[in-house]
Design brief:
The chain has a domain of about 140 residues. The strands form two sheets. The protein has a four-stranded antiparallel β-sheet with strand order 1-2-4-3. A four-stranded antiparallel β-sheet has the order 5-6-8-7, with helices on one face. The chain is an alpha+beta fold. The two termini are about 40 Å apart. It contains 13 helices and eight strands. It is globular. Helix 1 runs antiparallel to helix 9 and helix 9 packs parallel to helix 12. Strand 5 and strand 6 form a beta hairpin.
Length: about 425
């Protein structure tokens, strides 16, 4: 299945063919960038650049060690060497394939190199700020240093990432790419205090949720427990584990949002969460939905399109968030969430906040990004479904205007990035 032309209430991600799964996987990895590009300007506008940096550190240090551990468990990856660390980068939503072009050189158990020949995140900052050195330092030094270390320390407490060169560059980006790093393991290197949100996120049901792994299909690697492949692509995996990896990617974004909103909640209180979620969804949903439309050839903005895109939305992680949908007619539909891990988690941070309390918060903004004349109303349970929402398209209503942040989110080439194939242009620089 490579297109999704007609709404199917029983559709699951597992039905997709391998080629589509791999491309969809890269889209899900990119969703972390869409999420961050939407939320971080909102934080900066309210509380300043330093608050944005501090929240980003809590977010990534809270989430990445947890999803790195989950990926290692999924693939049966053992060991504590640089090869395991590099596999973690290859499966990390913080390094979306083709948006960030990572390259690797493993020299021993305790030492390796990685470098980026291009970095969409860095390019976006340069574009938005006109190459401002302070902005480049903010993202490429203040944010990268501790978050890289937190990620590699999840594999080996003695591991660190040491910059060889990196932004700010001032003028032209070096021909070899924007940055180059050494990964070194040294058990005498000393300890680093663990971020409090790493533990908080790790205690959640989301971080501990287990997906069911089906029998291998026989069309690729059953897992990534074997030798390190520096040119690893999602297409290398068996389609059965690839389908589960996609669910992991969606859950990873969920963990990122959880850490992010926990940090906001702790530092700025509960009162701002609802407004932030609405603005956050309004900024990011049009961008990732436009990309999903192209991938799955979903046209139009009637209720069939709305429900199909909700079935593909990374916020509703398959299995962890148990959802269903009913198409009533071209203007009316119903969406519901049954008892699931997300509800049991008591999710009070992130886009799902309040849905099972009758509040629609981000859901309406997600729907309005598909059709600006659509509205969501919580309704009583029916047919055993616990948390239900009616979605209605009112052709006589005034369209909801798009968020001004959409232009920022889709800048730097993100809106039109071609993820149809993961292409390596390997060099030895």
């Amino acid at each position: 299945m490579s297109t999704y032309a007609v709404f199917d209430p029983d559709f699951t991600w597992d039905q997709l063919d391998k080629k589509t799964l791999a491309r969809f996987g890269r889209e899900l990895m990119l969703c972390n960038q869409v999420h961050d590009r939407a939320i971080m300007p909102l934080i900066a506008a309210r509380w300043g650049a330093q608050a944005m940096t501090a929240t980003a550190l809590d977010e990534w240090m809270g989430a990445s060690p947890n999803y790195n551990r989950r990926n290692r468990i999924l693939h049966g990856i053992s060991g504590d060497g640089v090869d395991v660390i590099m596999k973690g980068f290859q499966l990390d939503i913080g390094a979306p394939h083709m948006w960030l072009n990572f390259h690797y050189d493993i020299q021993s158990h305790d030492r390796g190199l990685f470098w980026l020949t291009s970095c969409g995140a860095y390019n976006g900052v340069r574009e938005m700020t006109g190459g401002d050195a302070n902005a480049e330092t903010q993202i490429c030094v203040h944010m990268e240093d501790p978050t890289f270390d937190a990620t590699v320390m999840a594999v080996n407490p003695g591991a660190r990432c040491i910059p060889i060169y990196r932004p700010p560059h001032g003028g032209d980006i070096p021909a070899a790419g924007p940055c180059r790093w050494e990964v070194r393991i040294d058990q005498d290197i000393g300890t680093v205090e663990v971020n409090q949100f790493t533990e908080l996120v790790g205690r959640s049901r989301a971080a501990r949720f287990e997906f069911t792994l089906p029998a291998p299909a026989g069309d690729g690697l059953a897992n990534y427990s074997g030798p390190f492949k520096r040119d690893f692509r999602l297409e290398d995996l068996d389609s059965s584990i690839l389908a589960v990896q996609l669910k992991e990617f969606a859950l990873d974004v969920h963990l990122l949002q959880r850490a992010c909103y926990l940090s906001i909640q702790q530092n700025y209180g509960d009162d701002v969460i609802g407004e932030l979620i609405a603005e956050h969804c309004a900024a990011m949903a049009p961008v990732y939905q436009a990309r999903l439309r192209r991938l799955f050839s979903i046209e139009g903005s009637d209720m069939s399109a709305v429900l199909r895109l909700l079935q593909l939305d990374h916020h509703f992680v398959p299995d962890y968030v148990k959802t269903g949908a009913q198409l009533i007619d071209a203007r009316r539909g119903r969406f519901w969430i049954d008892d699931c891990g997300a509800i049991a988690d008591g999710e009070l941070t992130g886009v799902l906040t309040g849905l099972w309390q009758g509040r629609v918060l981000g859901l309406e903004q997600i729907v309005q990004a598909i059709n600006p004349r659509a509205y969501v109303t919580a309704v009583p349970a029916f047919d055993g479904h616990r948390f239900c929402y009616d979605i209605v398209i009112d052709p006589d209503s005034t369209p909801v205007p798009p968020s001004p942040l959409v232009a920022i989110v889709e800048s730097g080439g993100l809106a039109n990035l071609d993820l149809s194939e993961h292409i390596y242009h390997y060099d030895e620089r």
